[in-house]
Amino acid sequence: MMAQQTAPSAAEATTQSESSRLAGILTWMSQNGIFIFTAILILFALIFVDGFGSLMNITDVFHRAAPIGIVAVGMTFVVISGNYLDLSVVAQVATAGVILIAVSNSYGLFPAILAALAAAMLFALVNGTAVGIFKANAVIVTLATTFIGLGLLRFFSGGSIFFGPPDGPIRTFGLGKIGPIPYSAIVLIIMTIVLGLLLNRTNFGFLVRSFGVNESATRLGGTNTALVIIGAFLVTAVAAMIAGFVLAAFSNTAVSNDGVGYEFRALAAIIVGGTSVFGGRGSVYRTFLGVIFVSVLTNILVLSGISFGYQQVALGVLIVLAVSLDALARKVAQR
Amino acid sequence: MSTTISLGADESTGTWGRIRRTASRRTEGRGIVLLTFIIIMVALLEPLALTAYDVTLGRIALIGIVALGLTAVILMGELDLSVASTLAVAGVIMASIPDLALGIVAALVAGLVVGVINAFFVAVIGINSFIATLGTLFALRGLAFVLSNEAPVSLANKDAGIAFGQPLIGPLTPRILIFILVFIAIQLFVSRVRTGREFFAVGGNRQAARDAGIPVNKRIFTGFMISGFVAALAGVINTLERTTADPTAGSTVLLASFAAAIIGGNYLKGGRGSIIGTLIGAASLGILQVALTISGVQVPIQQIYIGVILLLAVTTDPTSLRAVRGSLRTFRQSRMKTPDG
Predict the structure, then answer these.
(1) E strand or H helix at B159, and its extent?
(2) Which of A86, A89, A95, A134 to mutate to test binding with chain B, by most B CBs within 10 Å of its CB?
(3) What is the domain count for chain B?
(4) Which of A119, B176, B193, B238 has its CA 20 to 30 A from that of A287?
(5) DSSP state string for A148-165
(6) Is the Cβ–Cβ distance between A267 and B138 less than 8 Å?
(7) Residue contact B304–A314, C-beta within 8 A
(8) Over the Cα atoms of chain B, what is R_g?
(9) Closest of B104, B137, B219, B238 to residue B179, by C-alpha
(10) Is residue B189 one of the residues assigned to a domain?
(11) CA distances from A91 to A45, A99, B85, B304 (A)
């Protein structure tokens, strides 16, 4: 019985063209390549890059990876829902940091967190309404809200740098670590697990993924798709807020251009992790691996004395190559 | 009911009907409303922005030139986010070459090359243009830093730059004249040249365009090369006027040029739009910016104004309004169905 069933399928497989095997390889690479690439990169760094394995450097990698990673695991929701990305995390990270330091200096920590949360919800509401209800292009909407948010922040903060008190809960959190792992990296790990469960195990997560696969089918299934989109932007905004807190706590300062480059590095981590920019496919755990890959790569470049410009070129090329792999896999599979 | 139908029939034949039909076919409506509103407000509150028209024209040219190239790509339903860094890279390339003419040529060629690279990833590999050009946006920004050693590069031939800033014909500086030339060239290209008119078909329905024998991939290459070239041209003009090339240039250009194109009624999904619309959008933003600057409004606040206008423009195009009406209808129907509603 088993042999009879497998025989025709095996015959079919042999008659199938090279292209389907190629498609299989490409799809597998674009989805699972990150595991191999990350392992190879870390091995390479340990062997060839001086100082990579030192305890101080590992702590440094974690410190730098944490805020970017927290933004990235949150933004994964927007990407999976098929809305490309949320550029306005640039403004969101900075807003949260400045509010945390500035408001807690004069009113205390708790009002500061509430104010930052209100700002994050406002960002999510504007982005989510424009994209979910008005069906506007997410790239353009979030480009507009980036400038609105940064403009408001620069106006109210006067563009000045805010310094936190030399001791207190923010400073304690920013400096604290368990072994070589700083608290900020533990926040990233917790965020990854929580958002991973939210995406894989809840109704909301299922709707985000199904919206990314087929928007109209999700709507015809009786879902209020606008709420799903607003929810995806809310997850991103809350994550960006926490990233802003972590960043501000680490340096104990906050300024309105703290978030510059975050949209780009977070997107690089998401795409390299194997989440598809075409929507529907991906996971928060992959994004976590992507964050490690991008952070280790950046660290190697920094340790090798390669300038900031080349780092940007490398990450830009990395994004385009990773998306090309995904697109080619789709193209070959469709043929 | 019957009277409205007969009225409609009468309207479609009369002068009024012709105006209505033209209005429904054109896409510049919102742009014209915004421009009229801004002109009236500025005339009442800050008339200096209109009387000092050479300054205002210069600002419109600054915003508009990149937007004109962008429109060619938007007509095909694609986006080119990389224009901001193309502008910076072109400026840096031009300033690092001592010979002025050679520098300008190299910068413009660089713009074309960027267009070819973008189009390759969009048309041949099949990546979404938002993501592909976002990647090149950052890669090129990095390249601008690398080429300039992370500092502004001064132009070797400063005299040429100073001469470039002076009015050439009447009050018109070379920048304004180049802007007008680019406007006429692209307008003629998309309305009178077959290749350009096919952009609308590619944006409207790509499969239908392919079936009709239009070489879609070639048109995408043409479009991205136009936007890359025009962005590089803007970089050359900026470098000449300021006599230095700043590797960080162009981040505010991104917002303003997209805002100009979208206010002008160009559909992001492609197929509908016009170069004149982009001009109207650029004029609205230029007049607004000059008026705000004269009345002493800080730059962050100006960016809020432009951001809000862009947000309004992108959420009030007919497809968006139809989507909102659709969801309202679904909402009402779902309310009617629920027994306790």
Answers:
(1) helix B158-164
(2) A134
(3) 1
(4) A119
(5) HHHHHHHHHHTTPPEE--
(6) no
(7) no
(8) 22
(9) B238
(10) yes
(11) 33, 12, 20, 12
Domain span holding position B157:
64-278
What DSSP letter does each residue of A153-204 carry, written as one string?
HHHHHTTPPEE--SSSHHHHHHH-EETTEEHHHHHHHHHHHHHHHHHHHSHH
Tokens standing for B207? 């499969």
Predicted-assembly ipTM surpassing the 0.95 threshold = no
User: How far apart, in whole angstroms, are the C-alpha atoms of residue B198 and residue B234?
Assistant: 26
Residues near B176 by Cβ (< 8 Å), separated by ≥ 6?
B54, B57, B58, B61
| A202-241 residue pLDDT tens | 999 999 999 988 888 888 887 788 899 999 999 999 999 9
User: What is the rounded distance in angstroms from the CA atom of residue B240 to the CA atom of residue B90?
Assistant: 12
Q: How many Cβ pairs closer than 8 A exist between chain A and B? A: 154
Tokens 């009369």 map to which residue? B14
Residue A122: count of CB within 10 angstroms of its CB: 15
**pLDDT-derived band of residue B318, with 50, 70 and 90 as boundaries?**
confident
Question: Cβ of B121 under 8 Å from any chain A Cβ?
Answer: yes
Domain extent listing, chain A: 69-259+274-283
CA distance A85 to A71: 11
Q: Does A301 touch chain B (CB under 8 A)?
A: no
In a domain, B188, yes or no: yes
- Residue A261: closest CA among chain B residues belongs to which residue? B138
Q: Does residue B243 form part of some domain?
A: yes
Asked whether residue B259 is domain-assigned, the answer is yes
Residue A281 pLDDT: 84
Q: Does A211 touch chain B (CB under 8 A)?
A: no
C-beta of residue A259 within 8 angstroms of C-beta of residue A119: no
